[in-house]
Design brief:
By secondary structure, this protein is mainly α. The protein is built from 8 helices and 3 strands, in the order αααααβββααα. It binds fe (ii) ion (FE2). Fe (ii) ion (FE2) binds next to α1. Fe (ii) ion is lined by residues 27, 31, 82, 169, 171, 173-174.
């Protein structure tokens, strides 16, 4: 069994100037590729997991042999989260918030700006490395949250029924070359390259 790195749905320079080409290239070909390689190496130790979907593996980490639980959590989560991240990005100006999505954001957060503020707060408030998320709960409500390291909603005891609509990688490798320590500026720039069509599709709006 072998997971593979997918091609990006746009060129490495397509998100300039908000996310620079060098960062995108290193992020995809080095960081993401390493998660894929390490995930495959961990699973190869226990080939009985061959053919399982990554969702299934990450939702049942505690059932894996103890010696690969941590590497699969970190690297499987890394592969899963990055695959998701690339899909919710798009060249600046290529998509916009649909009326239905806007209505949902206003209903849940008060305004689109209030949603963005809450999301940026989650991104900035995550100590160390991790992710900020917009998720749709089972009851249809929208929530902002964050996870540490490469964890995600599949591994979280009280959020396994959440559907993620948007995620932001706040590991330094995602922004340090351009933004250095200014994670807040990166989080603000992110709004220019969100694939709002994908967010709406994931939320069913
Ligand atoms: Fe990353």
């Amino acid at each position: 069994m072998s997971f593979k790195l997918s091609e990006l749905p746009y060129a490495y320079n397509a998100l300039e100037p908000f996310i620079d080409e060098k960062t995108m290239r290193i992020h995809h070909t080095a960081h993401h590729q390493t998660y894929v390689n390490n995930l495959n190496a961990a699973l190869a130790k226990h080939p009985e997991n061959e053919g399982r979907e990554l969702d299934d593996i990450l939702s049942n980490l505690d059932k894996l042999p103890a010696d690969i639980q941590a590497p699969v959590r970190n690297n499987g989560g890394g592969h899963y989260n990055h695959d998701f991240f690339w899909k919710v990005l798009a060249p600046a100006g290529s998509t916009k918030i649909s009326p239905k999505l806007e209505e949902a954001l206003v209903k849940n957060f008060g305004s689109v700006d209030a949603f963005k503020e809450a999301f940026e707060k989650a991104a900035l408030g995550r100590f160390g490395s991790g992710w900020a998320w917009l998720v749709k709960k089972a009851d249809g409500s929208l929530k902002v949250n964050s996870t540490p390291n490469q964890d995600n909603y599949l591994m979280c005891a009280d959020c396994t029924s959440d559907t993620p609509l948007l995620g932001l990688d706040v590991w330094e490798h995602a922004y340090y070359l351009k933004y250095q320590n200014k994670r807040g500026e990166y989080a603000k720039a992110f709004w220019n390259v969100v694939n709002w069509d994908k967010v709406a599709e994931l939320g069913g709006y």
